[in-house]
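Figure 2 data, in text form.
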Amino acid sequence: MEQNFNRVVLCGVVTGEPYLSHINHGESFYKFPLSVPRLSGQSDELTVVAPWVLLERAPCAAGERLRVLGQLRSFNNKSGQGRRLVISVFARELGPGGLEPENCIQLSGVICKAPVLRRTPLGRDICDIILAVNRRYGRADYLPCIAWGAVAQQTAAMGVGRRLTLEGRVQSRTYTKVLPSGAEERVAYEVSIMRPAEIEEFTEQLS
């Protein structure tokens, strides 16, 4: 039986008040932005979705440090407005954040699109991957991942349908989209792969 794994741990600063995202089966879900600093001094600006019952137990407000444990989720936006693939962190636990920032994701899923290997102007290899990670009830999250250097070469050699287990971080980056109405700045979210791993490493941590 194939194993799928999806675990995110974040520790950062809430940069906006939670607001209603949607209601599903009578349960309310709220969104809020979380800023997680990198060692470089830049920050990843991530969107967290949390059920109201979690926010009742662990209220959060702009400026507070927060620790989030959850999963990285994707949503296929068919409205025709905004991003087609919406990526966010679905919170399962919320609590006070420590002084040190944290951004770690552990994933195990199947490569669902042929990896694309490219090279930067400075000659560094980059590989783009879409990883399908199954949820319960027949659903799946389609998560964009990026690998660099030797890891890029390693993942580029993997074919569609191969299982990839990895550890990395969730990152945000801005880019410019040229539209008929003019240039528009947008934000993309992806998993930056730090290293390939074995699924046993992750399951042992939870046992």
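Caption note: The CA atoms of residues 108 and 165 lie 4 Å apart.
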